Amino acid sequence: MRLLIGTIFMLAGVLAVSAANEPGIIKGSDQFEFVYRVKLPEIKGDACVWIPLAKTDAFQTVTAEELSIPIKWEKVQDRDYGNDICVLHPQSADSGKTIELRYGVVRREKAAYSASGEDTSRYLRPEKLVPVNETFKTLALDATAGKTADLERAKALYDHVVRRMRYDKSGTGWGRGDAVYACDARTGNCSDFHAYFIALARSVGIPARFAIGATIPADKNAGAIEGYHCWAEFFADGSWVPVDISEAWKNPKLADYYFGHNPANRFELTKGRDLIVDPAPASGPINFLAYPLLEMNGEVVKPETTFSFRRIGS
After folding, report:
1. How many CA atoms lie within 13 A of 312 on its CB side?
2. What burial letters (b/e) apply to 77-97, b meaning 16+ CB within 10 Å?
3. Is 21 a residue whose pLDDT tops 80?
4. pLDDT for 220 beyond 80
5. Residue 314: which pLDDT band, with cuts at 50, 70 and 90?
6. Where are the alpha helices (DSSP H) in the chain?
7. Structural domains counted in the chain
8. Does 282 lie in the same domain as 246?
9. 50: which residues sit within 8 A by CB, 6+ positions away?
10. 151 and 12, same structural domain?
11. What is the mean pLDDT of residues 281-292?
12. Whether residues 221 and 176 fall in one domain
C-alpha cells in the first residue's frame, strides 16, 4: 500500500511532462493576481453578507494586495474548518456599492501529501447534502468488489463516478453538491460529482473531504473566470490524495492525472461543507462558500459576483 502512495509522488514529475501539452493544465507552480468582486443590490431592510477570505496553506501563498470593502466589516472563522470569512451588515445607503478583494497568489501543484497527525475520522461523518446510508454503501461495495486497499478502492469509486455521471448543468437541482440528486439524476456540476464521490467513499470507511475555489485559465494570461470550481480529497495510508472527477469526465485523457493531482492553476477559497459561523445565517449552516452569501430580511439574495485574474510575469 505504501508503494502505491509512493508511486503517486514519484510519478508526479513524469505525468507533469506527459500532461504539459494537455489543455487546462499548468504544472509545477503558477503565479497570478486574483480579483473577487461583488456588487451589492438594493438593500431593503436587515441584511448580512458572508464572503470567503482566501488564506495561505501548504499549496498556496496568498497576499491580500487590496481589500476594498467600503462598509464596516469583521473577520470571523467557521467553527470546524477555520476558514476566514468577511461578515458585513450593509444598510440602505450601501446599495450598489462594490466590494473588491485583490490577491497575489503563488500556487503549487498538489499531489498526495501527509495528513500530519490530524483526526481523519471526522471526514467519515455525514453532511446535510452528503449522507452516509445503505444506498451509497451498496453502490460503493459493488464498485469496489475485489479491492482491499483503500487507494485501490478509491480509484474504483473514482472510475465509477466518471462512468455513471454526466457533466450537465441543465434543469434544476444541480450545483448544490447534493449527493442524492447526483446519484439519482446522474448529472450535475463539479459540486455534484464530488458530493457523490465523497458519499460513496465515506459509506465504505474511506475519509473524504471537499474544497472549493476557482480554476485559473491556462490558455490565456488575463481575463474573466467563468465561476467557481471544486474538488475532493480522500485519505489512504497516511496521506490525503486529491481528485478532480468532473475535470476527468470532461478530459478523459487526463483521468489518470486527476486521480492524485490538482494542477497549479487552482485557487482555493474555503474547505468543507455545512460551515457554522457566528453570526449565523438565518438559512442555517453554509452549504459551501465560494460566492458570497447575502441574506436580506431572512431571505437569500444573489448579488452580482465576478472573478478575474492576471498571470504574473506574463
Report:
1. 11
2. ebeebebbbbbbebeeebeee
3. no
4. yes
5. low
6. 2-19, 134-143, 150-164, 179-185, 190-203, 245-250, 255-258
7. 2
8. no
9. 85, 86, 87, 277, 281, 286, 289, 292, 293
10. yes
11. 98
12. yes
Check if the beta carbon of residue 58 is closer than 8 Å to that of residue 289.
no
> Which secondary structure element, helix H or strand E, spans residue 104, and what is its range?
strand 98-108
Residue 161 φ/ψ, nearest 5 degrees:
-65, -45
The mean of the pLDDT values for the chain is 93
Whichever domain contains 45, its CATH number is: 2.60.40.2250
List of residues 6+ apart from 220 with CB closer than 8 A? none
Taking Cα atoms as reference points, which of 286, 264, 195, 268 lies closest to residue 31? 264
pLDDT in tens, 152-198: 999 999 999 999 999 999 999 999 999 999 999 999 999 999 999 99
Q: Of 198, 235, 230, 195, whose CA–CA distance to 213 is shortest?
A: 230
Cβ neighbours of residue 95 closer than 8 Å, sequence gap 6 or more: 40, 41, 42, 43
**Which residues constitute the domain of residue 128?**
2-19+112-270
- ∠ CA 270-156-197, nearest 5°, is 30
| Same domain membership, residue 118 and residue 101 | no
Same domain, 98 and 169: no
In tens, the pLDDT along 27-81 reads 999 999 999 999 999 999 999 999 999 999 999 999 999 999 999 999 999 999 9
Place of cell 468577511: 86
- Examine the domain organization and report whether 52 and 125 are in the same domain: no
Q: Kindly indicate the confidence band of residue 5, based on its pLDDT and cuts at 50, 70 and 90.
A: very low
Angle at which helices 134-143 and 150-164 cross, to 10°: 100
Shared domain for 289 and 169, answered yes or no, is: no
Go through the chain and tell me how many residues it has. Answer: 314
Asked if residue 25 is part of any domain, the answer here is no
**Residue 141: which pLDDT band, with cuts at 50, 70 and 90?**
very high
Residue 41 near residue 95 (C-beta atoms within 8 A): yes
